[in-house]
Amino acid sequence: MIKLVIKTDVADKLTGETKVFPKTISNIADAATNENLNLFATAFIKLIDGTKNKVEKITTEEI
């Protein structure tokens, strides 16, 4: 399974203070390509109106 962590800086509209907003999406199919993950992350970031974005792909495997 793959996990995707999207971290983006979001400015509070009242105070103007910038905070890091992390979101982890779990249980993504192993067949998902990096292109698919990037498209999803881009769409997600547009929904939350963030700046300074960072996306991390986390894979796990049984040993």
Write out the strand line-up for the largest beta sheet, numbering strands in chain order.
Answer: 2-1-3
The outline comes out as elongated
The helicity comes to: 10-25%
Task: Specify the number of helices.
Answer: 1
Q: Report mean pLDDT, rounded to a whole number.
A: 82
What does the radius of gyration come to?
13 Å
Write the H/E string, N to C: EEHE
Biggest sheet layout: 3 strands, antiparallel
Determine the structural class based on helices, strands and strand pairing. alpha+beta
Give the termini distance in whole angstroms: 14 Å
Number of strands: 3
Which range does the strand content fall in? over 45%
Low-confidence stretches: none
Question: Which characteristics define this entry?
Answer:
elongated, alpha+beta, three-stranded antiparallel sheet
Structure description:
By secondary structure, this protein is of the alpha+beta class. Helices cover 24% and strands 48% of the residues. It has one helix at 34-48; strands at 2-11, 18-28, 51-59. The protein has a 3-stranded antiparallel sheet with strand order 2-1-3, with helices on one face. The two termini are 14 Å apart. The relative contact order is 0.37. The mean pLDDT is 82.
